[in-house]
Amino acid sequence: MTMDSATTRDGFVAYDELEAPELDAALWSPLRLPQPTGGVHVPLDPAAEVTVAGGELRLTIPRFSLSHDTWQPADSAKYVMSSTGEFALPPDGSATFAVDLAIENLGGEPGDYRRGMAAFHVFAVDGSRPVFAVCGTSTRVLAMHEQLAPWGSAEPFNHVVESPYQDFDDDFTRLRECTVTLDRGASTATWRVDGREVYRAPGAVIPERVRLGIGIWTMLSPRDGRSRSLEGQGISTRWRRFRVRGVEV
Predict the structure, then answer these.
(1) Is this model's pTM higher than 0.90 or not?
(2) Candidates 1.10.579.10, 2.60.120.200, 1.10.10.1320, 3.40.50.10320; correct CATH number of 9-220+227-245?
């Protein structure tokens, strides 16, 4: 696998500069969710429109069409890709993962992130299974901290956090620098947007190795045997300059 190792500003090294005419299959692959009944579910909404141009990945789903009436992970995840590249975190000191991200809701209610949001994920590939993500809507900037049940976590949780006094002008539609910093030595995860701290989790389980992820989600669990995630809404998202610092590329 070939990765662009050019050093960018602030000591970051590029993972994917998005220079190919399409998403590079050597660098990215669809996430595969193990189903409780066996087999796997691949969350790629057939309505998704994916373009790579000008150093930017744009993913648009005009109207969500992928859902599941009983299994929440398959209902929530509308489109998720994982980096094929893995990053070993230093045992002492920190590593930072970054992308420039912009999000626009299409229909729906941007004030209610559960009905549609986009994310930049950093997640574990070992048995600990935590997920750290900067995510949001057109108007809300959020941090997500998860331990996911589909991968067999004994104590799963899903937390979405907002820093109410960090003022982003209620606008995530323009590109903003989103970073996740993981420090194994201090057992701390920190989420920042445009250099401002959105959330910090001291005492967090920090894995030994991670991957990057991109995705579009809803977070309304099915009710009474029916999905609640399809209400005619969609999302258009832009990611630019995937980059890392403090790890080998």
Answers:
(1) yes
(2) 2.60.120.200
